[in-house]
Amino acid sequence: PEMCLAAPSLVVEVRDGMAVTECFGQQREVSLLLMDEEIAVGDYLLIQAGGFAFEKVEEARALEALALMRELTEQGGDARAWGVAA
To answer: Is 80 exceeded by the pLDDT of residue 20?
Structure first.
């Protein structure tokens, strides 16, 4: 089985227990059901298969991870391995 790394996703909208997130130009709606803290626009989340956010990530850590993933993708990696593709 392929390993799937969760790419940090930026929260662009929050409503009714759901968040709209953006990562590498892809937007998707995710559930906040598993989150035990308040989530706001501008936060970064890790999202598991099935569309559930499971961890809030510090902005600096999120940006560092995204930069590394972008660099690997530019070297021929596949962003789909990070669960980014819808």
So the answer is: yes
